[in-house]
Amino acid sequence: MRIKAKLKNDIVIVKMMAKHIMLSQTEAKRFGKTANYITNMLGSVGDTIVFEASTSQTLSRNPYVKFRFKGAKKGDILKMYWKDLLGNEKTDTAKIK
Q: Which entry of 33, 37, 65, 96 is 20 to 30 Å from 22 by CA?
């Protein structure tokens, strides 16, 4: 996962790319594989959830997500998490600059 979090005018701008194959049901059937795509994404600073999304197979490979939120300061740690259809999980962190 690649994460950039930058504070500007009291708003944190987050850019995140989740490295994942995102194999839809149709593609999986065509290639004789098992479908697998990210189903949930979550972002938090401390105990506060700042981003939450339920996703589906319509996202592209290596999905790019950009969002903004208020309430953090420079030096805080942003924790991003995703889970896919097969139960695989990935967590990564970034320091807010």
A: 96
